[in-house]
């Protein structure tokens, strides 16, 4: 059989495409290792020289009102303490790393490392009857482009903001966003229960967003603590 010129020139292209697909599969698999999929809570370490340090250090991150907040721990369970106002217990961040769907990220070349996202179970809807068979729903965690507040929401909402890359530090404990450990605590309300998580990507106390001029900003480290209780593990829908 005689191959024409067009067929011969197409062979390298086909081989290159197949190799690109293979490399992409390898990158995708590396981003979804069991270690990255292990559910964890987020505890806070803060050594800032501030009289407010004790309101931030050794707290736990919780989800409420579409944002991530710092919350005091119960000294025995090490989980969120009860709300002093209504006696409820805030929902702790319980999530893991997960590549953000590539079809929601236009102009991504192939192969390319997946953008590692962060997901968490979310507080149950108080208006929906509880069922012991109900699956916990997951939302994506992201930094708001306009305010740098760290929030959670559905994929369609998250993709309009900074969805990653999230990752861990070399010791696999500290949480990073944009390859840097620049997540901070901002005092939105006084009283110890109003500290929210922000992304200070320029490491300047959010000067561009005029946050530091109006509110107290403390540098801290958000540290992952793997969940060992199977009852707490989220279900990926």
UniProtKB/TrEMBL annotation:
In this chain, the stretch annotated as Disordered covers: 73-93
Q: Which UniProt keywords apply?
A: Signal
Q: Where is the signal peptide?
A: 1-20
On the tree of life, the source organism's domain of life is: Eukaryota
Regions of biased composition (Basic and acidic residues) lie at 73-85
Enumerate the PANTHER family for this protein: PROTEIN KINASE DOMAIN-CONTAINING PROTEIN, RICIN B LECTIN DOMAIN-CONTAINING PROTEIN
What protein am I looking at? Uncharacterized protein
Q: Which organism is it from?
A: Lophiotrema nucula
């Amino acid at each position: 059989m005689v191959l024409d010129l067009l067929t011969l020139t197409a062979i390298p292209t086909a081989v290159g495409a197949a190799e690109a697909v293979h490399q992409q599969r390898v990158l995708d698999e590396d981003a979804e290792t069991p270690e990255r999929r292990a559910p964890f809570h987020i505890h806070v370490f803060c050594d800032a020289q501030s009289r407010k340090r004790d309101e931030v250090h050794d707290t736990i991150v919780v989800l409420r009102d579409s944002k991530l907040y710092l919350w005091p721990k119960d000294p025995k369970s090490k989980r969120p303490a009860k709300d002093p106002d209504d006696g409820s217990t805030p929902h702790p961040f319980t999530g893991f790393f997960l590549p953000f769907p590539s079809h929601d990220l236009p102009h991504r070349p192939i192969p390319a490392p997946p953008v590692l996202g962060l997901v968490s179970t979310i507080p149950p809807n108080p208006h929906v009857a509880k069922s012991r068979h109900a699956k916990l729903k997951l939302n994506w965690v992201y930094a708001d482009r306009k305010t740098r507040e760290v929030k959670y929401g559905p994929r369609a909402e998250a993709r309009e903001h900074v969805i990653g890359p999230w990752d861990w530090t070399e010791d696999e404990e500290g949480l990073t966003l944009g390859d840097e450990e620049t997540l901070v605590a901002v005092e939105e309300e006084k009283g110890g229960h109003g500290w929210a998580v922000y992304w200070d990507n320029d490491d300047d106390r959010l000067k561009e967003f005029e946050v530091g001029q109006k509110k107290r900003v403390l540098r801290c480290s958000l540290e992952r603590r793997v969940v060992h209780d199977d009852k707490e593990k989220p279900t990926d829908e």
